[in-house]
Specification:
By secondary structure, the protein is of the alpha/beta class. The chain folds into two domains: 2-58 and 240-436, Dehydroquinate synthase-like, alpha domain (Up-down Bundle); 65-234, Rossmann fold. Helices cover 48% and strands 13% of the residues. The protein contains 16 helices and 13 strands. The chain has helices at residues 35-46, 76-83, 94-97, 100-111, 128-140, 152-166, 239-257, 264-286, 291-311, 315-327, 331-346, 351-362, 370-387, 404-411, 415-420, 427-436; strands at 2-5, 9-11, 17-19, 23-25, 65-68, 87-92, 115-119, 146-150, 176-177, 187-191, 203-208, 213-218, 226-229. The protein has a six-stranded parallel β-sheet with strand order 5-13-10-8-6-7, with helices on both faces. A three-stranded mixed β-sheet has the order 9-12-11. It is globular, with a radius of gyration of 22 Å. The chain starts with a strand and ends with a helix. The chain binds nicotinamide-adenine-dinucleotide (NAD) and fe (ii) ion. Nicotinamide-adenine-dinucleotide binds at residues 93, 95, 124-125, 150-154, 156, 192-193, 195-198, 201, 203-205, 233-234, 236-237, 241, 245, 248, 331-332.
């Protein structure tokens, strides 16, 4: 008999003894799907932080409203009229600002009595300067609303523009947690990549290329007023960007699901996200015009964003930041390459969660232990990466091995993801992990 989560008495920090109900699985027998119901909550019994959700409080936040579905973009003029009046700033990804959508939107917004003003000076992996320029424009034109339409870089820029329009100072004054004193302008965010989940998070990430650093503004005032998601807007994403942004979303879901801050609501979002991304990522990369796959991916990245905003991310994100800051590797690509290696490091901390993720990814179960399921989960991620053309290691990204110590020292300072990581991780662990990636 294999005992995954046995009846145990676990001492809490306060010294109270709590008896948990466990379950047993006979090795060699096909495990019933329903057994996994227990593994969903299993880690609450298996790790100190998670074993008794009744003993800690948790909250769940996100965008004020979420609208999702094919053709949902048609709701934008009405939503804009509801949340703004007069001049409104349209922060648009440059790939869109020259196209038909911009012309159509300008016309529809004007019919609602609004005055749209375009801002499209957005860089991929944006710098603070573009958000600060956008904020100056919003203030000068006395805008009442900021609409962001584009990939994560555009949405993060729009969030910071809205915040800076009503708060003095620069982006760097607010990089950190809860440093923003006042609410910004209302925002409507429309993602056109299925990756970051920025449309429902409280974060805006900026790369300071001169200082070679990357950092996020994290504030409750950055939660968008409205998230509007239309999968048709993602049909034009090229395969490589679909693959990399999709792996970013999968990383959000998996890191949130195994985070020390995971809670029952973030788990619900993460589980569904893992299922959807497992089912649709390969299809969306293979055939970008597959609307069902695009829809599944956009819903998956939305749910992964909800999980990430409430449970946080882990060491993959911490270790990806220096790759972006020092070597201009895009966020999705950096996460995608690191993911299997860091999962392998974390596996021993919560094998039941990993086994559960394996089930979510594959939709079927084999007669295996939690440990074997956890190993299979990582193999699945590695196979998925290969199938969608993600580079295998840091050598393929041309990161010089001599930069490892500098990268590790930068990664360990990305404090919250390091704290959330299910297995405690030191700078020496990070050095060893980066070495494994060659
Ligand atoms: N705020 C958050 O919670 C959060 C979470 C994760 C990542 N991020 C940040 O988001 C940024 C990355 O965002 P991203 O991965 O979405 O990439 P991106 O926004 O940089 O877009 C990548 C490229 O795809 C293009 N593009 C976007 N949508 C397209 C479409 N439908 N068709 C064709 N081309 C399209 C863009 O013009 C750009 O050239 C990074 O700065 C990262 O740090 C933020
Ligand atoms: Fe991310």
């Amino acid at each position: 008999m294999k005992n995954l989560c046995p009846n145990t008495v676990i001492p809490t920090k306060a010294g109270i003894q709590v008896e948990t109900t466990g379950f047993q699985i006979k090795s060699g027998m096909t495990r019933l799907k329903s057994d996994y119901r227990y593994t969903t909550i299993g880690p609450y019994f298996c790790t100190k932080e998670r074993f008794n959700p009744m003993q800690k409080t948790f909250s769940f936040q996100g965008a004020g409203e979420i609208h999702f579905g094919r053709g949902a973009i048609d709701q934008l003029p009405d939503l804009s009229a509801r949340h703004g009046s007069g001049p409104i700033l349209l922060v648009m990804d440059p790939f869109l600002s020259r196209g038909f959508l911009k012309i159509q939107l300008f016309s529809d917004l004007k019919k609602k009595g609004l005055t749209p003003i375009l801002f499209d000076q957005i860089e991929p992996e944006p710098s603070p300067a573009s958000a600060e320029a956008g904020a100056r424009l919003a203030r000068r034109k006395t805008c009442s609303l900021v609409i962001g339409i584009g990939g994560g870089s555009t949405l993060d820029t729009a969030k910071a523009v809205a915040m800076l329009a009503l708060n003095s100072g620069k982006v760097s004054d607010y990089v950190g947690l809860d440093l923003v004193p006042h609410p910004g302008l209302p925002t409507i965010l429309v993602p056109t990549s299925a990756g970051t989940g920025s449309e429902v998070t409280f974060t805006a990430v900026f790369t300071n290329r001169a200082a070679k650093t990357k950092g996020g503004i994290n504030s409750r005032f950055l939660y968008p007023t409205v998230a509007l998601l239309d999968p048709e807007l993602t049909l034009s994403l090229p395969p490589q960007i679909t693959a990399q942004t999709g792996m970013d979303a999968l990383t959000h879901a998996m890191e949130a699901y195994t985070s020390n801050k995971a809670n029952p609501l973030s788990d619900m979002a993460a589980e569904k996200a893992i299922t959807l991304i497992g089912r649709y990522l390969k299809k969306a990369v293979k055939n970008g015009k597959d609307l069902k796959a695009r829809e599944g991916m956009l819903l998956g990245s939305l749910l992964a964003g909800m999980a990430l905003a409430n449970a946080g991310v882990g060491a993959v994100h911490a270790m990806a930041y220096p790759l972006g800051a020092l070597f201009n590797i895009t966020h999705g690509l950096a996460n995608a390459v690191l993911l299997p290696y860091v999962l392998e490091f974390n596996r021993v901390a919560c094998p039941e969660r990993f086994a559960r993720m394996e089930f979510l990814l594959s939709g079927s179960v084999a007669a295996i232990s939690a440990e074997a399921g956890a190993k299979k989960c990582i193999q699945k991620i590695t196979n998925l990466s290969r199938a969608i053309g993600i580079p295998k290691n840091l050598k393929e990204l041309r990161i010089p091995e001599k930069a490892i110590r500098t990268m590790a020292e930068a990664a360990i300072k990305v404090a919250r993801p390091i704290e959330n990581n299910p297995r405690p991780i030191t700078v020496e662990d990070i050095v060893r992990l980066y070495h494994k990636m060659y």
